[in-house]
């Protein structure tokens, strides 16, 4: 059977408390026992001292200081709390005893007499504490005085105390368990509310939040964490929706252009020049769609961690090669500048780094005029290897700097100037960089140019 959380808490607390209470009850009983026994032993000691001065053994005969007093004393009567007395010789043979002993004898233990120590024994049906002292006459040891006091009342008191504690114990435990169960139930009530609220949140009402009851305790922290999680989920779902709608839009635009071109072509017979022109326009729409699809695939592919394998690369040689390659492809002058005096070795995925750099260098080419300089720089700063791609082109306005890495974001001027692109290049760069632990910093000024700086993780 699976116990509810409140029952488990109450059970554990009760178990610990039961051990503590058991120890406390045990100590109470022990202290009461020791106190009662000590008190009887003290009285017994006083009685012994009193009788030591009244009874003497002289050459085997008993003498009393006040014989008549002795005969009238309490030990001749049956009392509620009687004192029993017996006089024995050195071998323990009884010489005289108080009448309240009737046919019984006290116990003879010469070894205990020296220590004036009391012990418990039974006389007939009743329990007594006994003490024994030597009787000495003119320095000669003649016998022993045995004295006992009833222990019945004290035993009754101790037994009552033990019974009360034993009856109280399960009662206290049961009430403790029930109280703790109730309190534990009360304390986890806010958690129940959180559970029922979160159970009601689905994709359709992801904007709802769990109400914050006690902001400063752990439950408040839990509520805040759940709400933050919901916030992240909602943002990611919105991004996903936005991405799907942007992607559909990006594909629909060239498709409509393609359809329009073909409709115009089919309407009536055209000259061969017109056919060539329209078919070229259709090709450019197809090229745009395949570029978008290629980049969408690139975004999806790297999510599966394809580029996670890293190998050692010498950065300077690698950058020289890639710069030359893109420069010849784009037919542009791209200067390479190395600010380090020794080779720079990094651990990176070559394909991923190549994709990042080709996106950034192609952007530098796209967003700057043919006469404007493009530079690729490398070096180390505080032993962190870096790469910079600088252009003196159109630059990015400050309000767009935070958005350029969002999928499908393109600056209006780029669209207006018909610069080819899909708005996915920097999103791919961001994802790849994140996967490889590369930090990207952008500095740009509208009309003056941009610098994209990559800081590679130290290998
Ligand atoms: P694309 O270049 O295909 O439009 P990107 O994701 O590569 O998409 O870039 C997003 C936007 O950021 C671009 O549309 C452009 O407005 C801006 N941008 C990126 N690189 C540069 C740059 N080097 N100079 C100026 N603007 C840039």
Automatic annotation (TrEMBL):
The keyword RNA-binding does not apply. InterPro entries: HAMP_dom (IPR003660), HATPase_C_sf (IPR036890), HATPase_dom (IPR003594), His_kinase_dom (IPR005467), HisK_dim/P_dom (IPR003661), HisK_dim/P_sf (IPR036097), Sig_transdc_His_kin-like_C (IPR004358), TCS_sensor_his_kinase (IPR050428). Residues 246-459 form the Histidine kinase domain. The chain crosses the membrane at residues 12-32, 164-184. Residues 185-238 form the HAMP domain. Pfam families: HAMP, HATPase_c, HisKA. Keywords: Kinase, Membrane, Phosphoprotein, Transferase, Transmembrane, Transmembrane helix, Two-component regulatory system. Its EC number is 2.7.13.3. It catalyses: ATP + protein L-histidine = ADP + protein N-phospho-L-histidine. It is found in: Membrane. PANTHER family: SENSOR HISTIDINE KINASE TRCS, SENSOR HISTIDINE KINASE YKOH. This is histidine kinase. It comes from Algoriphagus aestuariicola.
């Amino acid at each position: 059977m699976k116990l509810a959380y409140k029952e488990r808490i109450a059970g554990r607390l009760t178990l610990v408390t039961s051990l503590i209470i058991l120890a406390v009850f045990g100590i109470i009983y022990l202290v009461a026992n020791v106190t009662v026994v000590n008190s009887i032993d003290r009285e017994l000691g006083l009685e012994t001292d009193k009788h030591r001065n009244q009874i003497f053994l002289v050459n085997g005969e008993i003498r009393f200081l006040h014989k008549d007093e002795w005969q009238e004393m309490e030990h001749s009567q049956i009392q509620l709390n009687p004192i029993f007395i017996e006089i024995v010789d050195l071998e323990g043979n009884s010489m005289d005893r108080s009448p309240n002993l009737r046919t019984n004898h006290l116990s003879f233990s010469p070894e205990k007499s020296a220590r004036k120590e009391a012990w418990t024994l039974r006389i007939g049906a009743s329990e007594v504490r006994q003490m024994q002292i030597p009787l000495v006459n003119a320095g000669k040891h003649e016998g022993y005085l045995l004295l006992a006091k009833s222990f019945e009342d004290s035993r009754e008191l101790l037994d009552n105390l033990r019974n009360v504690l034993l009856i109280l114990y399960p009662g206290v435990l049961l009430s403790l368990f029930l109280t703790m169960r109730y309190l534990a139930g009360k304390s986890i009530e806010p958690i129940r509310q959180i559970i029922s609220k979160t159970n009601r949140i689905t994709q359709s009402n992801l904007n709802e939040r769990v109400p914050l009851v006690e902001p400063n305790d752990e439950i408040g922290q839990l509520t805040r964490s759940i709400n933050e999680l919901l916030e992240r989920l909602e943002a990611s779902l919105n991004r996903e929706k936005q991405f799907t709608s942007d992607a559909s839009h990006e594909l629909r635009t060239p498709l409509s252009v393609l359809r329009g071109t073909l409709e115009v072509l089919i309407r009536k017979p055209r000259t061969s020049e017109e056919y060539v022109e329209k078919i070229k326009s259709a090709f450019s729409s197809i090229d745009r769609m395949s570029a978008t699809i290629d980049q969408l695939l690139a975004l999806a592919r790297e999510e599966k961690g394809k580029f996670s394998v890293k190998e050692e690369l010498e950065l300077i040689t690698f950058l020289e090669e890639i710069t030359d390659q893109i420069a010849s492809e784009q037919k542009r002058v791209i200067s390479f500048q190395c600010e380090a005096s020794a080779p720079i070795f990094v651990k990176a995925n070559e394909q991923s780094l190549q994709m990042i750099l080709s996106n950034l260098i192609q952007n530098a080419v796209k967003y700057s005029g043919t006469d404007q300089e493009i530079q690729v720089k490398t070096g180390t700063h505080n032993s962190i290897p870096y790469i910079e791609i600088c252009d003196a082109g159109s630059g990015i306005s400050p309000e767009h700097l935070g958005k350029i890495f969002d999928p499908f974001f393109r600056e209006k001027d780029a669209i207006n100037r018909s610069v080819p692109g899909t708005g996915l290049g920097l999103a791919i760069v961001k994802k790849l960089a994140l996967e490889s632990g590369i930090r990207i910093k952008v500095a740009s000024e509208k009309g003056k140019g941009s610098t994209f700086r990559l800081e590679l993780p130290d290998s």
